[in-house]
Amino acid sequence: MKATSIFKGTGVALVTPFTKSGKVDFKSLTKLVNHVIKGKVDYLVALGTTGETATLMSQEKKDILACILASGAGRVPVVLGLGGNSTYGLVKEFEMIDFKGISAVLSVSPYYNKPSQQGIFEHYKVIAKESPRPVILYNVPGRTASNISAETTLKIANEIKNVIGIKEASGNIEQCMRIIQHKPTDFLLISGDDALTLPVIACGGEGVISVVANAFPAGFSEMVRLALKGDCKKAQLLHYKHLEIIEQMFADGNPGGVKEFLAQLNICGTDMRLPLVRVNKKVQTTIRFLTKKYSVTLS
């Protein structure tokens, strides 16, 4: 069996808090980890897109991962975000990382250079061979400028050992359904879109790697648990409450929106690294209203 139940449910793509001076705010990061674990998420994802990893220096990445592992203290599994557009450059990164405490690797499809489907397959063939931990594919064409087709995902699932699932953030439900229908039983289809999590699970998906769960882990992870148990009516009630939040969370960019919610919840500040900036005043006002509306029932 390639897949494991520890990656079913709610994973949270952790933000990276910064101080006003632009340094990593480790105190707030520890507070965030405790917040989401208290909210009963199933696992943590370190150094993903939401963590502003593209702006981090090598030593900062090591220190952030160490902080997350120490803060989690073995309470939940940790998945490490590790991707790039140079296959062999990524292999070198694998060689320099201490994988103690890491349960899996989330690896985004190569971005910018727009490889063919065969190129994507060959890339993951190398990555899966070199990775000392199971690999979860990450398909997010809105950021990479190329889509991992359903056919390529299924080819990887059937032919490449050590790949256990895919975080699907294409926004294409039909593509998700084709993968779910034909995938091996031990291959996970994980939603990469918070707003589509309920329909993806209803179609046979196994959970989500979430942004909204940074701020509202209790309510969102409960929605996922209910959906996985087949209690769609109760899950729908939570889904529609979160939908209003999600709309504003992504209205002016990620992770700007979720950091605005986290600031209202006194978890961390709104600071980001350029070229990312704080969300606009209109979104700030709406987020303050929504936090007051939902913080007691959902966070």
Write a brief caption for the model.
Helix content is 46%, strand content 12%. With 299 residues, the protein is of the alpha/beta class. It is globular, with a radius of gyration of 18 Å.
Describe the protein's architecture and organization.
- The radius of gyration is 18 Å and the shape is globular.
- It has 299 residues and is an alpha/beta fold.
- The chain has helices at 26-38, 58-72, 87-96, 117-130, 141-144, 150-159, 173-182, 197-202, 217-228, 232-249, 256-264, 281-298, and strands at residues 9-13, 43-46, 78-81, 104-108, 135-139, 163-168, 188-191, 207-210.
- The chain has an eight-stranded parallel barrel, surrounded by six helices.
- The model has no long low-confidence stretch (mean pLDDT 95).
- The chain has twelve helices and eight strands.
- It has one domain (5-229): TIM Barrel.
- 46% of the residues lie in helices and 12% in strands.
